[in-house]
Write a structure and sequence with these properties.
CATH class of the domain at 2-149: Mainly Alpha
Largest sheet: 6 strands, mixed
Organism: Acrocephalus arundinaceus (Great reed-warbler)
Number of helices: 15
Distance between the termini: 49 Å
Protein name: KI21B protein
Strand order of the largest sheet: 3-4-2-1-32-31
Helix content: 40-55%
Pfam family, one: WD40
Mean pLDDT: 73
Strand content: 15-25%
Number of strands: 32
Low-confidence stretches: 208-238, 252-275, 474-519, 521-653
GO molecular function: microtubule motor activity
Keywords: Coiled coil, Cytoplasm, Microtubule, Motor protein, Repeat, WD repeat
């Protein structure tokens, strides 16, 4: 390859030199031809001038001779004058003739130049042919090497996979063997101990023991005590069983009151081993049967209570939507009577009424499902009641009754302890909640005062604060406390505060469900398993986002004026209209969904007034996106898109808003807890970026929204994209926002009315203004020569933008908005990238591609042109790379093969990998600031928390019922998009 490169460079150099000689000769030939034409023209012109002068002289002399005043002196003077002029002309003619002769001589030499020119042209043509052949040979050689390398890498990966599989099988077999040996040893010891215990005593030994009480069914009790201990504690050793039995014998021997009727009992030998085992098995089976039946009855009652709560909530919601539908029907009738030609308003009202009808139909279907489930539960209840538990109890012997009573006593004590603990926790949480309400109200006032001081120099902020005060009506602290203490059951109006703390380690989690493109927020209530002592320090409660309360009275049906203002937004599924229930999965029969509680978890007491969970329900595939389908048919000119209207009161209602979410069912056990939802997009959210004050979201609805995290409101909507907004980045240094759609990167200046100032293309072109301003419909195909841009990233200093398009990454210098280079090396499309900074202040770009490889590029100052990778991480993933996360020298990569790998950037090697970290594609990764933890999200909607150092799972939560497309964090919050 080195020789080919050298030969190609020499050929290129010689071709350039000879091409320059050819150009010089051609220019010289053209110059000589031009001179020849000039000389010939001047010569002909001078000859004609001489001839005209001679004719003029003869004519003047002839005219002079005919005149009366003719004198010889005057004729000679005129003749001398003409002769002088003719001499000068002849002199010029001779000069031109001499120059013409010199030019003719030069033209004779031109034939030699022409021969040289033809020779040079032939040599250049030969060199070009040789260059083409050499480049073809180089491409063939590169192709052969690439194929050989790919084949070798595939063989190596296959061998490594086979080796790992064999090692795993070996470890599994070794572990199975050890377990079998342990079980065999334990059984042997248990049999030996039982044989020693069941051995009858001789009369002499019994005589030395003196009086002892009668022990009814002693062998059965031995067996019952030993076997009943197995379900209670699987790790109980045989020695503890023997000690327990010895204590029981000593109690019998030292307590004469235990004898029957106070008489001396007759000595009785222990029964044989077979009898004790039969009794033990029968007693254990009876207890297990009773336990299962009791658990089934409890679960049945729990399910019925929850279904009744669901029914009440659905009926209440149906009544609200019915009233709202009646109001809209009345409004439509009034509008038809007043202005029958107003088709636009009627069409909008018809769409709203249609969407409300779809919502009501959905609620009716849910109510029918609840009724069918209740009927099937009642049928099952009759089956359970038909088997009377008293039959089982009456058939028990005395020893079996003792065993059942002992188990019932232990179970009662455990349940009573759990109830007492839960009541104490509830009292503690209620006290903390009251304290938090008071603290939140005071902090809201302090925040509003600080905003008023800052708004003195910002008229727009001052107007926003005035509108917020008018909407929310802050009058007194007592009024705020009462507002914050109100619970929101299915309503949009609720407080935007939860459990608060001043710690800097506190986080919130925000995400967006797919149904209406919402932003859902959860609080990291517990970032570790409760049984792990090493993670107890991170299970403390985390602070929530303390915001100004957004009292959305427009969604209430009590005020017709507000009802008209928000009639468009009520058609979208809000948190109150998503009807959250227990996850249904793909089951179609209500009976299969009856037992919705995990048997391994303690049953939660029935609470009819509990707040529904924040995540939307799991519906069958054909019903999951019902609201998205209904609302997607609305035109682009509808009121949902009119967030920039001049009517500030209406636009404030129609803009997106961040709404708080009530507590979840398993808040104490879940690692993350939903606290708020941002609603405004009409289709799934695909990308995110956030600072401490601002949040940016890009959606499939071809728009990007900017949110204020302080006020919880949408600030602006950046529209006009040709297709889905797949990536978004905000540069805090310049105040610019970069959005990606198809092959375009739009540059928005949010400081100046959020306008698009430049449009960058994947091929490196820069277009002033918005190149997609005239696009009104969705564009599917790209322009010729352009590629789909999958992701963009900014370096930490905000001076360089990296855009992944096709198999390469283009580098943009933001100071000039010009492309300066390209990162190449992948053989598949680059799907993700991330940027970090080295100790020498160089950009370290890490890319992941569909070719299964992760590559590292180090960009030094002044590097331009085509740049290759500095390192390829081995071994690759088994499928395309979907996401990357970098922090210091640690890199995590997530792939479509459901696995996550941890890499060391300094040693450039694989540290650890988890092949099946998720059950679906790993779509997003992000580090939690100020904590040694990393978040991962998959296409199944599951979010997992991992310890960065040990790469062990800390916990997981079902964050969404649709794929999680992106995760980002700021100093206090975690955001996800779905």
């Amino acid at each position: 390859a080195v020789n080919f490169q050298a030969d190609l460079a020499d050929l290129t150099c010689e071709i350039e030199i000879k091409q320059k000689l050819i150009d010089e000769l051609e220019n010289s030939q053209r110059r000589l031809q031009t001179l020849k034409h000039q000389y010939e023209e001047k010569l002909i012109l001078l000859q004609n001038k001489i001839r005209d002068t001679q004719l003029e002289r003869d004519r003047v002399l002839q005219n002079l001779s005919t005149m009366e005043c003719y004198t010889e002196e005057k004729a000679n003077k005129i003749k001398a004058d003409y002769e002088k002029r003719l001499k000068e002309m002849n002199r010029d003619l001779q000069k031109l003739q001499a120059a013409q002769k010199e030019h003719a001589r030069l033209l004779k030499n031109q034939s030699r130049y022409e021969r040289e020119l033809r020779k040079l042209q032939a040599e250049v043509a030969e060199m070009k042919k040789a260059k083409v052949a050499l480049m073809k040979q180089m491409r063939e050689e590169q192709q052969r090497r690439r194929l050989a390398e790919t084949k070798r890498n595939r063989e190596i990966a296959q061998l490594k996979k086979e080796q790992r599989r064999q090692e795993f099988q070996i470890r599994a077999l070794e572990s199975q063997k050890r377990q079998q040996e342990i079980v065999l040893r334990r059984k042997t010891q248990e049999v030996s101990a039982l044989r020693r215990l069941a051995k009858p005593m001789s009369d002499r030994v019994a005589g030395r023991l003196g009086q002892k009480p009668a022990m009814l069914d002693s062998g059965a009790e031995v067996s019952a005590s030993t076997t009943s201990s197995e379900p209670e504690s699987g790790a109980r050793s045989v020695s503890s069983i023997v000690r327990q039995w010895n204590r029981k014998i000593n109690n019998f021997l030292g307590d004469p009151s235990s004898s029957i009727n106070g008489a001396r009992p007759a000595r009785k030998k222990f029964p044989k081993k077979g009898t004790s085992q039969t009794f033990s098995k029968a007693a254990r089976l009876k207890w297990q049967s009773l336990e299962r039946r009791i658990f089934d009855i409890v679960m049945q009652r729990m399910t019925i209570v929850n279904l009744e709560a669901d029914m009440e909530r659905l009926i209440k919601k149906r009544e609200e939507l019915s009233l709202l539908q009646e109001a809209l029907l009345g409004k439509r009738a009034k509008l038809q009577a007043e202005s029958p030609k107003e088709q636009k308003g009627l069409q909008e009202l018809n769409e709203e009424i249609e969407v409300l009808g779809a919502n009501i139909d959905y609620i009716n279907d849910s109510i029918s499902d609840c009724q069918a489930t209740i009927m099937q539960i009642e049928e099952t209840k009759e089956e359970l009641d038909s088997t009377d538990t008293s039959v089982v109890i009456s058939s028990c012997s005395l020893a079996e009754a003792r065993l059942l009573l002992d188990n019932f006593l232990k179970a009662s004590i455990d349940k009573g302890l759990q109830v007492a603990q839960k009541e104490a926790q509830i009292r503690l949480l209620e006290g903390r909640l009251r304290q938090t309400d008071v603290a939140s109200s005071s902090q809201n006032h302090a925040l509003l005062d600080a905003l008023r001081e800052k708004a003195e120099s910002h008229p727009e902020l001052q107007a926003l604060i005035h509108n917020v005060q008018q909407e929310n009506g802050y009058t007194s602290t007592d009024e705020e406390v009462s507002e914050f203490s109100l619970a929101s059951d299915g309503s949009i109006s609720q407080s935007f505060t939860m459990k608060g703390s001043a710690s800097q380690d506190d986080f919130k989690f925000k995400g967006e469900p797919k149904l209406s493109g919402q932003m859902k927020a959860v609080s990291a209530e517990c970032l570790g398993p409760t049984l792990d002592v090493s993670t107890k320090n991170i299970t403390k409660s985390l602070a929530s986002l303390m915001e100004i309360k957004e009292d959305r009275i427009g969604f209430s049906i009590r005020d017709p004026y507000y009802k008209e203002k928000v009639s468009r937004t009520i058609s979208l599924p809000t948190r109150g209209s998503t009807f959250p229930r227990q996850s249904r999965g793909s089951d179609t029969s209500p009976l299969t969904r009856r037992k919705s509680y995990d048997r391994g978890q303690p049953a939660r007491p029935a609470d009819i007034g509990f707040t529904p969970p924040s995540s939307p329900p799991t519906r069958p595939r054909n019903d999951r996106n019902v609201f998205s389908r209904l609302t997607s048919t609305q035109s682009q000119g509808s009121a949902l898109d009119k967030s920039d209207d001049s009517d500030s009161s209406v636009s404030e209602v129609l803009r997106g808003i961040i709404n708080p979410v009530g507590g979840t069912k398993n808040a104490r056990t879940a690692p993350l807890q939903c606290v708020s939802v941002a609603e405004g997009h009409t289709k799934p959210v695909l990308c995110l970026d956030a600072t401490d004050e601002l949040l940016f979201t890009g959606s499939k609805d071809r728009s990007c929204k900017m949110w204020n995290l302080v006020t919880g409101q949408e600030i602006a909507s950046l529209k006009g994209h040709p297709n889905n907004v797949v990536s978004i980045k905000y540069c805090s240094h310049t105040g610019l926002v970069f959005t990606v759609s198809t092959s375009y990167i739009k540059v928005w200046d949010i400081r100046d009315s959020a306008r698009c100032i430049r449009t960058l293309t994947s091929s490196g072109q820069v277009i002033s203004g918005d190149a997609c301003a005239g696009t009104t419909t969705r564009t599917v195909t790209s322009v010729q020569g352009e590629h789909q841009i999958n992701q963009i990233a900014l370096n930490p200093t905000g001076t360089t933008l990296y855009a992944a398009a096709g198999n390469s990454v283009r580098i943009w210098e933001l100071s000039r908005l010009q492309p300066v280079g390209k990162l190449s090396g992948h053989i598949g499309p680059v799907m993700c990238l991330t940027v970090n900074q080295t100790a020498s202040n160089h950009d370290l770009v890490v890319t992941g591609s569909k070719d299964h490889y992760v590559k590292v590029f180090e960009i030094t100052e002044g590097m331009v042109g085509n740049i290759g990778p500095t390192h390829n991480f081995e071994p690759p993933h088994y499928d395309g790379i979907e996401c990357l996360a970098i922090q210091g020298d640690v890199l995590f990569s997530g792939s479509r093969d459901n696995g996550i790998k941890k890499w060391d950037l300094e040693q450039q090697e694989l540290i650890q990998q988890i092949p099946n970290a998720h059950k679906d594609w790993v779509c997003a990764l992000a580090f939690i600031p100020s904590r040694p933890m990393v978040l991962s999200a998959c296409r199944g909607g599951v979010i997992k928390v991992w310890n960065v150092d040990t790469f062990t799972p800390v916990g997981e939560i079902k964050g969404h019922d649709s794929p999680i497309n992106a995760i980002c964090t700021n100093s206090k919050h975690i955001f996800t998009a779905s």
